[in-house]
Amino acid sequence: MAIREGCHYEFWGLPTNFPLWFQADFPPHLPFGFIFTLPEEVTVIPFADNLTLLGAIQGSFYVQDGPSNTRELIIQAVAALLNAGHPDVNYPIPTSEVRSRFNNTLATLDGTKIAAQVEEFKVWNEELICPLRL
Fold first, then answer.
1. How far is CA 91 from CA 2, 4, 66, in A?
2. Which residue numbers in the chain have pLDDT < 70?
3. Quick one: pLDDT at residue 90?
4. pLDDT 10s digits, 55-94
5. Is residue 4 part of a domain?
6. In this structure, is residue 119 part of a structural domain?
7. Is residue 107 part of a domain?
8. Residue 97 confidence (pLDDT)
9. Neighbours of 26 (CB within 10 A)
10. Cα–Cα distance between 73 and 42 in angstroms, integer?
11. Angle CA(20)–CA(17)–CA(126) in degrees, nearest 5?
12. Is the distance from CB of 58 to CB of 9 less than 8 angstroms?
């Protein structure tokens, strides 16, 4: 069995690491709303179609309406997406599963379920070894 890998959201947020985003097929300027879905009950400022993946991972937004842990879920989900998409990272799940878990979990609007998904992404993003270096 191969060793699972993942990189911290702060790693992905460093300008020196932006070239790695393109290798993962998710450029920093890509709108968050093109990848992930926010339920109508959740309002993010700037709105999801104007919030970029880079803005999301750097926390350059706030959640106006929605569960209190939505912000952390967004940040961790973008890191998970980049990890899963990068060809040199052996992430535990593929990008399609990252998107599905984010969308399905947030759609419940259940803070407990969101916290559990945040924790899972966090373990994979922050406690696994990051194989990438520029």
1. 10, 6, 29
2. 1, 48-49, 134
3. 98
4. 999 998 989 888 989 999 999 999 999 999 999 999 999 9
5. no
6. yes
7. yes
8. 98
9. 22
10. 12
11. 90
12. no
How many domains, the chain? 1
The pTM assigned to this predicted structure is 0.95
Closest to 55 measured CA to CA, from 77, 28, 26: 28
Q: Which two tokens stand for residue 78?
A: 């973008």
**The pair of three-digit structure tokens given for residue 91, joined into one six-digit string:** 């992430």
Residue 3 lies in a domain: no
Name which of 125, 113, 41 is nearest 77 in CA terms.
125
Regarding beta strands 43-45 and 62-65, do their DSSP bridges make them parallel or antiparallel, or are they unpaired?
antiparallel
Q: Which residue has the tokens 């790693």?
A: 11
Q: Which tokens is 134 given?
A: 């520029």
Residue 94 burial (C-beta neighbours within 10 Å; 0-12, 13-18, 19+): exposed
End-to-end CA distance of the chain: 27
CB contact set of 37 (below 8 Å; sequence gap of 6+): 103, 106, 107
Q: Which domain holds residue 32?
A: 9-126
Structure tokens at 70: 């939505």
Token pair in block for residue 97: 């599963």
